[in-house]
Write a structure and sequence with these properties.
Blueprint lengths: L8 E6 L10 H4 L2 H6 L1 E2 L10 E5 L16 H4 L12 E5 L3 E2 L5 E2 L3 E2 L5 E2 L2 E5 L5 H16 L7 E2 L9 E6 L2 H13 L31 H20 L7 E2 L19 E2 L5 E3 L7 E3 L3 H6 L8 E4 L16 H7 L18 H6 L14 H8 L16 H21 L42 E3 L11 H4 L4 E6 L2 E6 L1
């Protein structure tokens, strides 16, 4: 069965000057709210739940407020979400959501007073009943239109006088979100401000990858997905599961009929109780960029996997490598991007080469994506979240993040307050979550967000000895401090 027949619905709304994006339908269907740039539905739940207020800045770097900068007008992600809304609901206590009628992560009940800690399990160790409940929720999310958020198919456009809102299924909405946060900025290189031009032309940075916010952004993403799965299933105790890919060599041990499905020689999922014939959205990114348009969520072919067939990364990471990764105490280091050395975030994301120490690696997180082959859904960042295995993979990445948190007990001071790429600083809004969510506070243990993991904690046995002896490490003392540089 193909699911594209229910995944795409367009609403056309006339407005005077501005288009809206990835927000509650109750706001984007309200022309007055669009004109006022205000999203405060249901009176923010009433005086005891919250109130309508001016929203904080979405980015701390003042370069995006320069009069000469055209970026914010043409890329709605900058200073999120002020291209669309300047006012929204600010919730009180444990209330949360766009209208303050939901609960903060980890809280439940009509008054949000019930605290729960859900347990995320290894998908292979789940009972048949547990697995069917989780994957059944995946299927329901794939076939249920989202009535809470809409996604924008044209971007922040000030000239057309109208905007298109695309209502997707719940699962496709989350696939779109992952695409949207990592897509290119739709500016011609000649129009890109010289302060912002990079080797990627005007793709200034990915708002969820290649910088300090990689782990915190994906933690928020997974929490949102988990909550939506609970809603569509009617089971508030439903938790995500993880794929422990350590020491599997060239074998994808979850690529079976009973878990995420078997694939044929063409990568198509042919044997699966749940995921056969699943369609992708936002796969053909070259076409979207060429058309100078944001992906609108149309079906673009079936998901594909070729596990173990990658010419460059045919094997999965090992426990020995994880032990080494967990030996890094520093969360991140300048310049807080793919060039950062001695950085736990950059090592776990996978940009540090285990052999040389150079920042040209395809390790850990990155290696698992590349393991699926160049032509797979998982290989391309914008399309990766279409494959259900993505959720199992990133839940495991979050577990490894949690291991590090429990080992080192970091504080907010361990996260860069400034100097990171736009959208990745401590007080930058995480794009494109609404209501606004900031990286601040996301170095807390998972129990603060209402979940934990089985088989915790992981004991570090390698102590960082795996590769460090192979690197040329220079240590010097300056101003009473010890510095380490890898050359």
């Amino acid at each position: 069965m193909a699911f594209y027949s229910v995944s795409y619905f367009v609403v056309l709304v006339s407005v005077v000057s501005v288009s809206k994006c990835q927000f509650p339908a109750v706001c984007t269907n309200n022309v007055t709210a669009l004109k006022l740039k205000e999203c405060c539905p249901n009176n923010c739940g009433g005086v005891n739940h919250g109130s309508c207020q001016d929203l904080p800045k979405g980015v701390i770097d003042e370069i995006f407020f320069l009069p000469t900068s055209d970026v914010q007008r043409k890329d709605d992600r900058f200073n999120w979400p002020h291209c669309f809304f300047d006012r929204g609901c600010i919730c009180k206590g444990n209330f949360a959501g766009y209208d303050c009628t939901e609960c903060k992560w980890g809280y439940y009940g009509n008054d949000c007073s019930i605290k729960k800690t859900l347990i995320r399990k290894n998908v292979k160790n789940m009972t048949i009943v547990e697995r069917e409940a989780l994957f059944g929720a995946f299927v329901k999310a794939k076939t249920t239109l989202s009535n809470l958020t809409v996604v924008n198919s044209t971007g922040c456009n000030y000239t057309e006088g109208h905007t298109h809102f695309v209502q997707l299924t719940v699962f496709d909405t989350f696939a779109w979100i992952h695409y949207y946060t990592s897509r290119d900025t739709l500016l011609d290189p000649k129009d890109c401000p010289k302060e912002l031009t990079t080797s990627h032309n005007c793709n200034i940075n990915d708002f969820a990858h290649e910088a300090s916010g990689f782990l915190t952004w994906h933690r928020e993403y997974m929490l949102n997905m988990e909550r939506e799965l609970q809603k569509v299933s009617g089971n508030e105790n439903l938790a995500l599961a993880y794929w422990n890919w350590l020491d599997q060599g060239s074998t994808c041990d979850v690529c079976t009929k009973d878990i995420v499905g078997e694939n044929d020689a063409n990568g198509k999922i042919t044997a699966s109780k749940w995921f056969k014939d699943w369609q992708m959205v936002c796969w053909d990114t070259a076409k979207h960029y060429g058309d100078n348009r944001i992906c609108g969520g149309q079906p673009e072919g079936e998901i594909r996997r070729f596990p173990g067939e990658s010419k460059t990364e045919p094997t999965l990471p090992t426990t020995e490598q994880l032990d080494w990764v967990l030996g890094f105490q520093k969360f991140d280091n300048p310049p807080f991007n793919v060039s950062s050395k001695m950085s736990f975030r950059n090592v776990l994301e996978g940009f540090i080469n285990f052999t040389s120490g150079d920042t040209n690696g395809h390790e850990m997180h990155n290696r698992v994506h590349l393991f699926m082959n160049d032509n797979s859904t998982m290989h391309k960042v914008p399309s990766a979240a279409n494959d259900p295995i993505f959720l199992l993979h990133h839940t495991f990445i979050d577990k490894l993040f949690e291991m590090w948190i429990q080992k080192y007990k970091p504080t907010e001071s361990d996260y860069p307050g400034k100097g990171a790429p736009i959208g990745h600083n401590l007080n930058d809004a995480m794009v494109p979550f609404y209501p606004q969510k900031f990286h601040k506070g996301y170095l807390q243990p998972s129990t603060a967000f209402g979940f934990s993991y089985t088989d915790m904690p992981h004991t570090v046995t390698g102590g960082g000895n795996l590769v460090i002896a192979k690197w040329n490490i220079i240590i010097w003392i300056a101003c009473g401090a010890v510095f380490v540089s890898i050359r």
